[in-house]
Every structure is written in structure tokens, then in C-alpha cells.
């Protein structure tokens, strides 16, 4: 059982314990977390904004469930304006703002969104890096990329198909009995170093992936106002990390893998109307 979770390393000389992975697993246990505190803290400088759930590729193991549970939900220009106003009113000088989806270039008001964020950068946080994260696939994406205003950085993965290597996001740690004493308030690198906080049409989350999980499970607990500096959002980590395949990542794969909790959640999602409150 442990071997399946990368706790053993096979070399030419034999099989040895994977000390790094075992140490990490021990660090996540409830008694150790009580003693040392959570391992990761949510970012106060970086945020990702999911402006649309529309996608033109719907990759295998998508961690926003664009393939598993397609949606046309999107943020409004008014919600982006609200984010900008909240950031200024709370003197939030973001170091990095990333626009994601879905595929963000499919948002019909993407150019207006650029203008709002560039206005924030020019008038309030000149050091802020505003980034568009796109798959670069299709005519719409190419058209928007040809119209990108100065001041917007582009991260273009240039995908040509929906078969990509991703960590199996739909493998919920809670479905593995080995994790029954794990403290999910530890979070992971995504909230601190990799991506930062997340904002969707339903509010703020410790990371963007948590916002995507909420769309499926319907906990409806996104913060409706910008989190204060002393809001660690640990309560949300405890809710969402137990369902996230990034919490204890397995080997990347282009095969669709799903644990029972996710299979049931998607089945319920299909038969349930959207009942999440809006940001």
C-alpha cells in the first residue's frame, strides 16, 4: 500500500524508503501539526482570478473540472471592478494577478477586464505583474493574443490537444484510509508559492483549485469580501484539501483517474441546479 504512494524508491541497488515523502507524510499528521502549526500559509501577495469556466480543450484531469463538469459560468465586469475597488480600499498592493479559466480568452469582455486591472496597476500598484494564462488554442485565443495591451504578460502553454500530463486532481485524499489522521489545514505549495489565493464568481478562496472544488461540491463558503491580512483561511483548507489531488500529489498522468468521492460528486452535480451565492 505504501509503495503506491511513492514511499519507496526503486534503484539499481534495490528498494529503499523515500525519506522525503515519508517525512512529508509525518509532517501532515494531526499531532505534528498541533505542535508545529500548519505547514503552508495562504499568500497575501498573489491571486488568481477565474474569469470563466468555458474551455475549448477540456483537458484530462482538469483541476477546474472543465472536462468533468462543463459550465458556462463566468465573472462579470462588475465583479472585476468590485475586486479592484476592494483592493484599493484595503490598500492591497498585489505583486501578481493572474487571469485564468477555463480558457480566459473566451470571456467576451476580456479586453474590458484588462483595462480595469491595468488601471489598478497604473494608479495603485505599479510593481504588480498582471498575467494572462492561456492555452493559445483556436481562433478566438489567437485573436485576443494579437490584441493584448501593453502591460499584460502572457503565459501561453500552446496546447494542441486535451491530452496533457496532469496530477490526478480527482483522487481525493479522504478516500485513502492512510490519510485518516492527516490535518488538512496544512494546505500545500499552491496556496503559498505556486499560485496564491483564488477568486471566482462565488468569492475568495485560499487557492483557485478550492474555488473549482466548491463549484462541484456546493459548500458555498467563498469569502464575499476580500480577506483581511489576519485571515489565514484555514477553515477553508480543512474543507477543500481533503478532496484535492494536489494535496498529496501522485505521478502526473494523461489517463483519467477518479476516486469514489469525486465520482459521486460529479453525478450529483449534473442533477443539481446552481445554488452558490455570488461574489
Structure description:
The structure is a single chain. β5 (129-134), α5 (138-146) and β6 form a beta-alpha-beta unit. This protein has a domain at 3-41 and 163-270. The chain has 279 residues and is of the alpha/beta class. The chain has a six-stranded mixed sheet with strand order 6-5-4-3-7-8, sandwiched between helices. α3 (77-89) packs parallel to α4. Helix content is 31%, strand content 13%. It is globular and about 55 Å long. The longest helix is centred in the middle third of the chain and has 14 residues, at 110-123. The model has no long low-confidence stretch (mean pLDDT 92).
Give short descriptive properties of this protein:
single chain; 279 residues; alpha/beta; six-stranded mixed beta sheet; two-stranded antiparallel ribbon; 8 strands; 13% strand
Amino acid at each position: 500500500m505504501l509503495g503506491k504512494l511513492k514511499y519507496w524508491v526503486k534503484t539499481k541497488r534495490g528498494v529503499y524508503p523515500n525519506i522525503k515523502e515519508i517525512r512529508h507524510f509525518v509532517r501532515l499528521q494531526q499531532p505534528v501539526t498541533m505542535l508545529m502549526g500548519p505547514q503552508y500559509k495562504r499568500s497575501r501577495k498573489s491571486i488568481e482570478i477565474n474569469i470563466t469556466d468555458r474551455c475549448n480543450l477540456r483537458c484530462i484531469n482538469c483541476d477546474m473540472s472543465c472536462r468533468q463538469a462543463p459550465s458556462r459560468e463566468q465573472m462579470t465586469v462588475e465583479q472585476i471592478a468590485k475586486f479592484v475597488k476592494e483592493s484599493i480600499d484595503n490598500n492591497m498592493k498585489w505583486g501578481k494577478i493572474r487571469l485564468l479559466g477555463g480558457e480566459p480568452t473566451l470571456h467576451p469582455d476580456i479586453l474590458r477586464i484588462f483595462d480595469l486591472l491595468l488601471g489598478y496597476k497604473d494608479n495603485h500598484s505599479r510593481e504588480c505583474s498582471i498575467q494572462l494564462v492561456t492555452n493559445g488554442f483556436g481562433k478566438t485565443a489567437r485573436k485576443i493574443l494579437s490584441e493584448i495591451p501593453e502591460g499584460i504578460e502572457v503565459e501561453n502553454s500552446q496546447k494542441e490537444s486535451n491530452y496533457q500530463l496532469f496530477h490526478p486532481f480527482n483522487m481525493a485524499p479522504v478516500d485513502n484510509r492512510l490519510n485518516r489522521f492527516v490535518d488538512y489545514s496544512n494546505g500545500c505549495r499552491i496556496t503559498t508559492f505556486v499560485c496564491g489565493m483564488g477568486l471566482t464568481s462565488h468569492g475568495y478562496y485560499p487557492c483557485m483549485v478550492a474555488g473549482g472544488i466548491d463549484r462541484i461540491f456546493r459548500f458555498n463558503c467563498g469569502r464575499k469580501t476580500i480577506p483581511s491580512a489576519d485571515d489565514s483561511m484555514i477553515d477553508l483548507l480543512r474543507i477543500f484539501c481533503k478532496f484535492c489531488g494536489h494535496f498529496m500529489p501522485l505521478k502526473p498522468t494523461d489517463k483519467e483517474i477518479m476516486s469514489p468521492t469525486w465520482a459521486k460528486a460529479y453525478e450529483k452535480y449534473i442533477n443539481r441546479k446552481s445554488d452558490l451565492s455570488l461574489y
